[in-house]
Write a structure and sequence with these properties.
9 helices, homodimer, alpha+beta, four-stranded mixed sheet, Creatine Amidinohydrolase, Chain A, domain 1, disordered N terminus, Creatine Amidinohydrolase
Chain lengths: 404, 404
């Protein structure tokens, strides 16, 4: 994001906190209150933007344009104090209510954003009972009626990546591309989807990084036309001549995710090239991604970008893909905020969010050929002032493997 | 728990689902509805009782005394269907509302429990915005007014361990005891708290298990009287003659946690035994744990157990410990439900919950001696019909180390 702050010397957590203060300056919210307890088991993903520390008891993190303050139980305080992250750390022993009312009362914000959101899972960090607790703590004070959703602020803060965040994603993507290269060199005829997944798991273990989503279905491996599609554990389908192999895989490196899909055609006996329907489908997917990259202009609503690609594919005679064109990518593999997706009920308001400079998206149109299988690519791109920059390699030619 | 079901042949997840159905038979709730989305980043810890699978889109898991059903987006379905865990798996594509209303309408429960709770973080698995979404989906249907907190059911289900769960905790505890033994053999004069933590991290890595809470402060290592107390990263304090070394550490093994504290006295020059105040304090802590174990009779409210130990220590002239005597232990290190703690605001209603057969607790009274440091033990116990059974070794004699 084009921040005006000189934050280069600060830790990434401190830079994100400075960014939050900056976004609050032009926000309808006068304060943002992040509340967690047992944060290891009930994490608010926004807390991880600032600190890796976990907090056991009710813990309050208040940010205003000019100030940040934390209120935590005595036992949770020492590490937070040492980190120097918050301008102020207050503590309580038996109960937080009085200290919370007093902290908020001093700043007296006219609107206080909490992390709840119907449409944005990553901005929905506050649990339902804890929200009730906060409301109860403020009952009878002038602060009671001032609680609002902070979803717009959280979407900005998660969505608009700082340069250092974009580079961390790029580095996760780079490493993942290398894993795809090495894995594909191990493909053999008769190898099962489960064995292919094992190769990727070995790559991740060797690099000492977790997979970007549950390793049960990361990677998702789809071989041929009969494999189940979706978030599915790899099965017993095996690589055969003339089949399409498709892999969806990502890692987390230094807290940031990659998310890539690659497809290969396994040459049949005597045919070095893929059949025309496969080549045509791959070219349609590539064309869709080109279209999307060109459409990622700041200010464009996500659904418009999706619709361009959706229409491109249907106009070529393919069925609509049953998912969104792409999603934000960051600390979470589905990083929340808007989505480059259709205006379907399940996406709520997310498709209406506008693309912004600093956003990082996946682009992943897909086709399923009944005779050949899943043809899909997934590229990771960053939005600049005039369009998208590819963080991934975007293989425009279908790779054909001649295996033994 | 004394289940009457023949569940031994089922997976642990299926056993817990059977246990949920059984608890629902005598619950004021007629149905339990667990709702998640982006469950990797926004997990409901109760979902993990049944499955390790993650779900991307709004996903609904409904349990009644006689039936279980899941409603998930098409892409999330295949693995869940294969698992056979739920009696029925339904899917939706564009939006879940119609399918949810129809599923609930068929069963027509008069009360539906959702996972929200002001007092119990582990029963507060539903996020605030997602709760709003569910309410919105049911608006205008007869189901709208029937949503309630499922906290009592969740507390039972997490709290009352099946025999296999108790054995998994015992096995995590056993392994942790071995780690403590080996680590203590590596203690040397001049070794820092941070280096001690490193020894425990190496033990965990060698066993291929994660620490039970953030490895930033698992273990917590406290050397001498001047170290910060609480959930603190280990610092530069070093082992010296005549000091007390205290370690709080746990692991997760097969999904279940251990949580132990051990203390050692490092012999001074020429004195093989610990000074009298240290011995007296250790004996007071041991006595407190004995008292607690005897008081863990099914039906006793948690605060009564805590009060016995608290009074025991204050009657000996020590200050009150600034925390609870103990907490549930299970899949989470603070496994939710009640607490063996004082009736302080921050514990809400948790101290009023009664001890039950099948509960597993930590017992961890602590003392801080201004001249010597933290004297505390933490034992893990399971509640049987007539009192507590120790899962840990409970070292009743203060170990004295003669180091070089």
């Amino acid at each position: 994001m084009p921040t005006t702050l000189d934050t280069a010397a600060l830790s990434l957590g401190a830079q994100k906190l400075a960014q939050a203060k900056e976004f609050l300056r032009s926000s309808p919210l006068e304060a943002w209150l992040l509340v967690v307890r047992e944060s290891k088991d009930r994490p608010d993903p926004s807390l991880r933007l600032f600190t890796e520390q976990d907090f056991t008891w009710n813990s309050f993190f208040l940010v205003t344009p000019g100030r940040s303050a934390a209120l935590v139980a005595t036992f949770d305080a020492p590490d937070l104090e040492r980190s120097g992250l918050f301008d102020e750390v207050r503590t309580y022993k038996e109960g937080a209510r009085a200290a919370l009312v007093s902290l908020l009362g001093e700043l007296n914000p006219r609107s206080i954003g909490l992390n709840f959101s119907k449409d944005d899972a990553l901005a929905d960090g506050l649990t339902a009972g804890l929200k009730d607790s906060v409301e109860e703590m403020l009952r009878g004070t002038p602060l009671a009626g001032r609680l609002q959703s902070a979803e717009q602020l959280v979407a900005l803060l998660r969505g608009v990546k700082l340069p250092i965040e974009r580079e961390l994603i790029r580095s996760a993507v780079d490493e993942t591309e290398g894993m795809f290269d090495r894995a594909a060199r191990e493909f053999r005829l008769g190898m099962s989807a489960r064995e292919i997944a094992g190769v990727f798991h070995r790559e991740a273990a060797r690099a000492g990084v977790p997979t970007a989503w549950s390793s049960r279905h990361c990677p998702t491996v789809t071989i041929g036309p009969n494999a189940a599609i979706g978030h599915v554990s790899p099965g017993d389908e095996r690589i055969d001549r003339g089949c399409v192999v498709h892999v969806d895989f990502g890692i987390v490196r230094s807290g940031y995710c990659s998310d890539l899909q690659r497809a290969w055609y396994v040459a049949g006996e005597g045919d070095a090239a893929a059949p025309e329907p496969v080549r045509r489908a791959y070219a349609a997917v590539v064309g869709g991604i080109e279209l999307a990259a060109g459409a990622l202009i700041p200010g464009t609503p996500g659904w418009e970008v999706d619709l361009k690609v959706r229409t491109h594919l249907t106009s070529l005679g393919y069925p609509e893909y049953a998912h969104a064109l792409g999603h934000h990518l960051g600390r979470a593999v589905h990083d929340g905020g808007g989505v480059l997706g259709p205006r379907w009920e399940r996406y709520g308001r997310a498709p209406y969010e506008a693309v912004r400079e600093g956003h990082v998206y996946t682009l992943e149109p897909s086709l399923h050929l009944p005779d050949h299988g899943l043809i899909s690519l997934e590229e990771d791109v960053a939005v600049g002032p005039r369009g998208a920059e590819f963080l991934s390699r975007f293989p425009r030619e279908l790779p054909v493997l001649t295996l033994s």
